[in-house]
Amino acid sequence: MLYREAGDFKTSYQADSQTFPIAFDRWRYWAVLVIAFCVVPFFVNAYWANAILVPFLIYAIAAIGLNILTGYCGQVSLGTGGFMAVGAYACYKLMTSFPDVSIVIHIILAGGITAAVGAAFGLPSLRIKGFYLAVATLAAQFFLVWMFNKVSWFYNYSASGQINAPERFVAGIAVTGPNTAPWAQYMICLVFLTICALIARNLTRGTIGRSWMAIRDMDIAAEIIGVNPLKAKLTAFAVSSFFIGISGALFFAVYLGAVEVGEAFGIQKSFLVLFMIIIGGLGSLFGSFAGAAFLVLLPVALKVIGVDLLGWPTDLVAHLQLVIVGALIMFFLIKEPHGLAQLWRLAKEKLRLWPFPY
Amino acid sequence: MKMKTLAAMALAGSMTAGTAMADLVIPDLSYRTGPYAAGGTPFSDGYQDYFALLNARDGGIGGESVRVIECETAYNTERGVECYEATKGEGALIYQPLSTGITYQLIPKATADNIPLHTMGYGRTSAANGEVFNWVFNYPANYWDAASVAVNYLLDENGGSLDGKTIALVYHNSAYGKEPIRTLEELSALHGFTLTQLAVDHPGQEQKSQWLQIRRERPDYVLMWGWGVMNQVAVQEAANIGFPMENFIGNWWAGAEHDVTPAGMAANGYKSLNMNPVADYPVLAEIQTLVHEAGNAAGDGSNLGSVLYVRGMYAAMLAAEAIAKAQDIHGVADVTPAMVRDGMEALEITEARMAELGMEGIGPEFAVTCQNHGGAGQGLVQQWNASSGIWEPLTGFISPDAAVIAPLVAEDSAAFAAESGITPGCL
Predict the structure, then answer these.
(1) Does B11 score more than 50 pLDDT?
(2) What is the pLDDT of residue B422?
(3) Cβ contacts of A319 on chain B, cutoff 8 Å
(4) Distance set, CA B420 to CA A166, B70, B134, B182, B423 (Å)
(5) Is residue B11 one of the residues assigned to a domain?
(6) Under an 8 Å CB criterion, which residues of B touch A?
(7) Domain co-membership, B100 together with B172
(8) Does some domain include residue B200?
(9) Residue B119 domain-assigned?
């Protein structure tokens, strides 16, 4: 009854093509933003920030990035972990080389550097597709991790090969380093996620997004109707890597504070982000959020239920978690191959007709 | 009805929180899953069993019962951070994460939160400089000590000279494995041996090419900085290429029973460092009767008395002694993390005290000071006897070369102090 188009008259082309055509959705969108920006920062504590909210926000940025490449442009990538590492190490080198420049600029530049690296590794996509491209990006993953381990310039020749984020401030408030307040950590990630999501939304519904989707749906047909595959594929790699680089920089500087490339950005990270977009929904921004939330929250929720409430041994819960996550992935792939985003779409369709379905 | 249940749950929650405040809370960031579980499980069993023994025998420490909160990290830094944040609010007194990667995460966090961190034989070596790392302790020994102890042992074997020898270092390609390189480079320049570095990537199952290189180059000795499944694979690979086992020395994280048993008789003669010789300590019998037979064993109870079990128990003993010391200094039983830090900095472990605790000779004697958070740095060399299935100590405690390590610690900790804006000084 509340959730319907009827009575909501669109009188301009702009209004007609807006993201949320239903008034209820628009209200909900603004409500989420108000809660995220004006309510949560006052209640967030160190546990919620570090264990749930900050990883969710950062993985959501990474998932948006990978979704642009895989979900919108159809290029399978297993190099997400490596590209996140590029973002992290670029941010570290910039932070330590130019300590007087704002960390926000460093994070954006880290995204830019990752975009350049991503576009370079995207070059093979002009000749190869599908599984072969997946293998090429897998090579990028292993090469980048090896390089950050091998070349000690990247970690400023420290004895352990670890990189540590020095303390940096935005408007006088620490956002990296050990003395960061939980709300500051949360806010910087939230601001970056909001801007990234807005950019991604507007790119994907514009010319460039349509050319990506044309390539995804059938590259030869797209080329015939005038889409330049070189431009479409390389921009998809660059934009996707830009977001992934930002997420890697935040992951290192704001979330963990110290990382080691093999452990933090290994192949398992590539798979984790890939699972996020598969479970969330390929080719959907909402899916990126849903998938990130699902895979960040699920282990924590299982741990709280198993260890804290039921008092089971920690190793049993950790093993069960692997079983449950694996089973859920299979369940989703069989029952809903289009992911959580499709469930959401179906729910909205049903809501529209409620209470008079036909 | 629903509101009632919720209210009851909230009430129960607040009551448990109320009683919990009086306990001494010790988090156990363990890992019983993943590729490093073989080492993490016995360590955690020993750690928890010792506190269970204190609770059962003495009613805790200084009359305060100990509550251990176990949290599974799977040796993963992200989960380690989650565990730290989850247990910090419970009033955690001391963290011992048993992971160098997690230690690097926790050094700044624990320092900012004023909770002491004890990384026994792992973690950041330069934390031995207590003036820079006020809240971090790594007594009784660290990686650079281990590297020096191993080289001193080899010097002893070779009549005082390693000139012209080659030593290969097989290391886990992580912060943990890279730690000894700087010291070994210094020592190789000093003693004239050639150092070859062979990195093994996480988790360590792929070592064929490294051992082929060893077979080709035939180094005189192989040192190993390994952990988890990497150790078992390395011992097997060394056996496969016929490398003489008595010239293959692991560090103290590469010398437990489960590392050598998979290779069977082929592992006979493999050597490793240790800081806790395995012996028939009286305390183990007490744990057997008061903890295991009472049905309170951590894990499945099968690890009692193994190398890493003893080390976990030793870690728990050092924590308990520090808490007792803190209670002594401040005159209160319900100590805070800051008081525990004072206790750790005043800790002194003597032969007499270890004998009193039923673990005579379990570790070196040492005293902690504000300047030196690293302890004595001694280690011993043990050798695996495959037919009897025991680790036999070959030497007594060997001292490291302080003249080499002290300047390195000073240099690295000064770099850290400059990087993080710390003015060195005692608290």
Answers:
(1) no
(2) 85
(3) 33
(4) 6, 31, 13, 22, 9
(5) no
(6) 30, 32-33, 37, 41, 70-72, 74, 76-78, 81-82, 85-86, 88-89, 100-101, 104-105, 107-109, 111-113, 124-125, 173-175, 178-179, 181-182, 199, 201-202, 412, 419-421
(7) no
(8) yes
(9) yes
Residues B252 and B401 in one domain: yes
Q: A20-353 in CATH: which number?
A: 1.10.3470
Q: Kindly identify which residue of chain B lies nearest to residue A299, measuring between CA atoms.
A: B79
The pLDDT of residue A325 is 84
Gap from A213 CA to chain B (nearest CA, Å)? 35
What is residue B76's DSSP assignment? -
| Cα distances (angstroms) measured from residue A346 to each of A2, A287, A338 | 17, 13, 11
Tell me the shortest Cα–Cα distance from B244 to chain A, in angstroms.
Answer: 30
> How close B159 comes to chain A (CA, Å)?
31
Query: Phi, psi at residue A284, to the nearest 5°?
Result: -145, 130
Give A-chain residues touching B105 at CB under 8 angstroms: 256-258
pLDDT in tens, B354-413: 999 999 999 999 999 999 999 889 999 999 999 999 999 999 999 999 999 999 999 989
Q: Calculate the average pLDDT of chain B.
A: 90
Mutate to test the interface with A, among B28, B33, B197, B412 (most CBs of A within 10 A): B33
Q: B150 and B132, same structural domain?
A: no
Residues of chain A contacting B30 with CB distance shorter than 8 Å? 314
pLDDT (average), residues A166-176: 91
**Cβ B32–A314 below 8 Å, yes or no?**
yes
The continuous run of DSSP H or E covering A32 comes out as: helix A23-34
Contact (CB, 8 A) for B267 and B244:
no
Q: How many domains does chain B have?
A: 2
Query: Does residue B111 fall inside a structural domain?
Result: yes
Query: Which is higher by pLDDT, A5 or A234?
Result: A234
Q: How many residues does chain B have?
A: 427
pLDDT of residue A280: 92
**Interface confidence (ipTM) of the complex:** 0.88
Kindly tell me if the per-residue pLDDT of B19 is higher than 50. no
What burial letters (b/e) apply to A303-334, b meaning 16+ CB within 10 Å? beebbeeeeebbbebbeebeeebeeeeeebee
Residue B87 CA to residue A47 CA, distance in Å, equals 9
User: Which of B75, B100, B178, B420 best probes binding to A when mutated, by most A CB atoms within 10 angstroms?
Assistant: B178
Distance from CA of A51 to the nearest CA of B (A): 5
Read off the pTM. 0.91
Task: Compare all CA atoms of chain A with the CA of B37 and give the residue at the minimum distance.
Answer: A315
The rounded distance, in Å, linking the Cα atoms of B339 and A251 is 34
- CA dist B284 and B290 (Å) reads 10
Containing structural domain, residue B82? 23-141+278-376+412-420
For residue range A52-73, what is the model confidence (pLDDT) as tens digits?
Answer: 999 999 999 999 999 999 999 9
Shortest alpha-carbon distance between residue A173 and chain B (Å): 16
Q: Mark whether B115 and B206 lie in a shared domain.
A: no
B226 and B237 share a domain? yes
3-state secondary structure of B265: helix
- Statement to judge: residues B246 and B262 lie in one domain: yes
- Clarify whether residues B129 and B177 are in a common domain: no
Q: Inter-chain contact A257–B108, Cβ cutoff 8 Å?
A: yes
Query: Could you tell me which residues come within 8 angstroms of residue B156 by beta carbon, excluding any fewer than 6 positions away?
Result: B398
Residue-wise pLDDT tens digits, B184-239: 999 999 999 999 999 998 888 899 999 999 999 999 999 999 999 999 999 999 99
Q: How far is A215 from chain B (nearest CA, A)?
A: 37
Judged by CB atoms closer than 8 Å, whether chains meet at B174 and A263 is answered as yes
Judge if B319 and B368 occupy the same domain.
yes
Could you say which DSSP state residue A170 is in? Answer: E
